[in-house]
Design goal:
The protein is of the alpha/beta class. 46% of the residues lie in helices and 12% in strands. It contains 16 helices and 14 strands. The structure holds D-xylulose and cobalt (II) ion.
């Protein structure tokens, strides 16, 4: 039985369409800068939100209506959910998906039992993936939900929690390989702390690095060639997460010899919780050679937590696409909608509106970004702003011809620095708006 009987495959109808179940900008095969939109954007759906988010919050009960789900923990229900998921992916035109091990299959009484349940559900993922050609963007493991991870997983004070997490990630990497995942993500979950007085921070960081090295080694051993990602988040669930932002994560990866194996998976709402915005995080990671994938969502500036809303702001998607195009686009990564419908948007059809809106916002952002790049006007402003580095003393410094002594001689002779030129911030902000509207 179809899970979404009233919806057919969502089509591109163009900017004038008023059909809420059509794309106005996302035209998968349309070329932008010589590459199909679907290859630029590589949209992915998060199983944990789309299939498992039941609408409960700390104050209220579940609200979601999901007729295909009988609410039980049976394997059969878990397998039916996967079939409903693929029907959704096909109809919404999403090419990739991501899940945590525990989103898709229930936990048993022992690890062996749990692994067996997982295998039974992964079998259906494999069948559905072969049927549709829709594949896994990245895999991951839930190392934060079960009470055994109350102090963290790789950074737990309890060595057995570390060992259990290792066994879980071993299995999750095997499953990711089985499903041809293009990557594997580490999100810290509870890898952080609440109280410095009871915490051995150095030991915890060393353990986290050891854990990641074990994952990298095991992937090599079994021939899993997907890209590893580290997903920054500054707080929630713990007060101080070790993976605060891209700068903290990249420092960690470099300090512990993991830089060759792990790139960043950047999430919009996590960036804003860290006091940045997503384009800052993307630019920082990309400029350092660490841009891997993106968890596409948005927060609410009036709320201080991880609201995981669908992104609809074209100004934001344009900024993101400008960074992505500048650095040559995704290779293994993509735009994974780590986003959930609001608990009041409880009908199955709301899942379509949400994803269509997000996909259209990125498609429009991609087109605006490409137009900005083609005009060269923004580049020209940036180039002019840094022109003092293109010749004379600037070019000499960049090419290594100077030190403090020679620069002191230069300035003593000159007496005063050349006057600065205007930053033209308002000019460039208006320029961007001209392309957007
Ligand atoms: C949590 C979060 C995770 C990761 C995967 O805030 O973003 O869902 O993306 O564990
Ligand atoms: Co995420």
């Amino acid at each position: 039985m179809a899970a979404f009987p009233d919806v057919t495959k969502v089509q591109y109808e163009g900017p004038d369409s008023k059909n809420p179940l059509a794309f106005r900008f996302y035209n998968p095969d349309e070329l932008v800068e010589g590459k199909a939109m679907k290859e630029h954007l590589r949209f992915s759906c998060a199983f944990w939100h789309t299939m498992r988010m039941n609408g409960s919050d700390p104050f209220g009960m579940p609200t979601m209506s999901r007729p295909w789900d009988d609410g039980s923990d049976s394997i059969e229900n878990a397998q039916n959910r996967v079939r409903a998921f693929f029907e959704f992916l096909e109809k919404a035109g999403l090419q990739y998906y991501a899940f945590h091990d525990r989103d898709v299959a229930p936990e048993g009484k022992t690890l062996a039992e749990t692994n067996k349940y997982l295998d039974e559900v992964v079998k259906v993922f494999k069948e559905e993936s072969e049927r549709t050609g829709i594949t896994m963007l990245w895999g991951t493991a839930n190392l934060f939900g079960n009470p055994r991870f109350m102090h963290g997983a790789a950074t737990s004070c309890n060595a057995d929690s570390f060992a259990y997490a290792a066994a879980q990630v071993k299995k999750a990497i095997e499953v990711s390989k089985e499903l041809n995942a293009q990557g594997y993500t580490f999100w810290g979950g509870r890898e952080g702390y609440q109280c410095i007085w009871n915490t051995d921070m150095k030991r915890e960081l060393d353990h986290l690095a050891k854990f990641m090295h074990m994952a990298v080694d095991y992937a090599k051993e079994i021939g899993f060639t997907g890209q590893f990602y580290f997903e920054p988040k500054p707080k929630e669930p713990t007060k101080h997460q070790y993976d605060y932002d891209c700068a903290a994560c990249i420092n960690f990866l470099r300090a512990y010899d993991l830089a060759d194996y792990v790139k960043m998976n950047i999430e919009t709402n996590h960036a804003t919780l860290a006091g940045h915005n997503v384009e800052h995080e993307m630019e920082y990671a990309a400029s350092q050679g660490f841009l891997g994938s993106v968890d596409a969502n948005t927060g609410d500036m009036l709320l201080g937590w991880d609201t995981d809303q669908f992104p609809t702001d074209v100004s934001m998607t344009t900024k993101m696409m400008l960074v992505l195009l500048k650095y040559g686009g995704f290779t293994t990564g993509g735009l994974n909608f780590d986003a959930k419908v609001r608990r009041e948007s409880f009908e199955p059809i709301d899942l379509f509106y949400a994803h269509i809106g997000g996909m259209d916002a990125f498609a429009k952002g991609l087109k605006v970004a490409a137009a900005i790049r083609e005009s060269g006007e923004l580049d020209a402003v940036v180039k002019a702003r840094y022109s003092s580095w293109d010749s004379g003393i600037g070019a000499e410094i960049e090419s290594g011809k100077h030190d403090f002594k020679s620069l002191s001689e230069y300035m003593l002779k000159k007496g005063e620095a050349d006057a600065c030129v205007s930053g033209r911030q308002e000019f460039v902000e208006n320029l961007i708006n001209r392309f957007m509207f």
